[in-house]
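Hey,
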Amino acid sequence: MTDKEVNIYKNMQSWEEKIIQIFPRAIPNKCEWHDEIDILNILFTLCYKDLNNVFYPDGQVLSLFGVDFSKESSCIELYTEENIDIIKPRKLSFHYYDDAYLWSYFRLEIDDLSPVFKSKDKIEYREKLICLESGEYIDSKKWTNGCYYDDNNNKIELGIKDQLVNRYVHKSSLLIFAKESPFRWVYNKTLNSLSEDEIAKIIEDLIVKEC
């Protein structure tokens, strides 16, 4: 086997193990969760080095390394190799294809959030903010070199637990596949705006085509 084939095989094994961990008795063709704690627990199970790719509505493809409750009500935080992302989860669904583990995926629906700051510029997907330990948000435009400036232009140093975050404000979805899934070669961000049934039909057609 080539190195590439070994990586694909190892990833398929790891992805299969995580799915079995979530469904120890029998793996359903489809399952969904609506409760925030359930969603957080499932996503936490998927947080493993080099396991997953998360396809964001703005076209980013990142790996999920951690999840947690947000200081903001009804929201959770997603930790990737680049960002801390705040989203309001609406539903998490799982879609399974027997003998096609690398095409099996999770779809995380995210709900609308009102923007924290009014802006003349249209917010396409997310707003970049500083989240203080207290849960208060500050416009990231006031942030520079580990400090921010208040309305009176006073320089204030950020605390250890103050974070630069992305806050997703528009209803859409995140798609979570195994890192070595062939989906990454056909992905474009228009797929994030499709309904659950529409994306499932596309994946089914791709599996048939691959076979």
